[in-house]
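Tutorial handout. Part one gives the primary structure; part two gives the three-dimensional structure as tokens.
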Amino acid sequence: MKHFFVKLHLILGLLSGIIVFIMTITGALYTFKTEIESITQAYKKVSVENRSFIPPSQALEIGEKANPGVAIHGVIYRDSIDALEVVYYQANPLYYGASYLNPYSGEVIKTVNFINTFFGFVLRGHTSLWLPSKIGKPIVAIASIIFLLMIITGLFLWWPRKTSTGNFTFTKGASSSLKKMEMHKIVGFYAGWIGLILVLTGMTWLFDGFDKITYKAMGGKKEVSYSVPKSDLSTRKDKMLHQASIDILYNRIKTLNPALHFIEIHAVKDSSSSVLVELNRDPTTHWKMDYLFFDQYTLAPIKPKHIYGSFEDAQIPDKIKRMYYDIHTGSIGGIFGKIIVFLGSLFCASLPVTGFLMWWKRKKEKRTFVKELNL
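Part two.
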């Protein structure tokens, strides 16, 4: 049995090593994106003024002029020292970026295409290996399954079968071959548990079926797929336009929640869509986000059928499902959680390297043995 797992572990490693290395290294680099950008992107901060923020409808108009022809996703309001962010997203042609505005005057500070930034480059490597999405994402999905099997087989092979800790300490004065083997075994055993969590949470985005099965297995009863509920067109009033409705909603929510650090008003796509407002009382994570939908004509609240609704209405399976992204990035544990994910990703990235070196050394020694015996 052990011989079978050794062979399986080796074959899987040789098949996916370079892909796993890219996925884990880019994952490690992406971990501290928010912290690094807060230092390097001064345009996201503004001087506080003694006046109100511009309304969402005005921000949308400015955003359309700043980046004409690109679909607007929404407007994000943060604190008094933060620039207002008009977010753009469209699938074809792909564009994901933002215009940063002075929230008091509406002046455009800077427009950024996130895809062309350093972290945009890193994310494309992590999710699609810098290949076209239709090609890269299936490869990443298959490599994720292989990596999962490698972790499982590796844990089986190196699981301590003795009560002593001798199997999990580095040997003093060991040869280079033994050092590589010990590094692969010891680092792999401990980092493998972190890798297991990262690959399982990542697979929920790669495989819709896996996402739904895990949610239902936890007892979840709602829909997993996100969708925007429809407004009731029978209540439509000519004088109530969706542009005005987003301003009314923003003022109402801001009045009721003056201490909120994150409010995103989504642009209404058409005459039948509802208005989505996202509220986050802890902008360092995503799982506690409130997703509030309103009829764009009556402003009556609409309760969605999926898990992305009010946090107050979320059941335990819904909350766990919402945590996946924050677990995957480590943000659920604050800065210490990110450090754990960062180090775990780096250690996992070392495994294909040490594994390959071990295999190459043995292969080279075997070739030398055969040559010396003239076989």
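Part three, for discussion. The chain has two domains: 1-42+127-221+315-375, 43-121. The mean pLDDT is 89.
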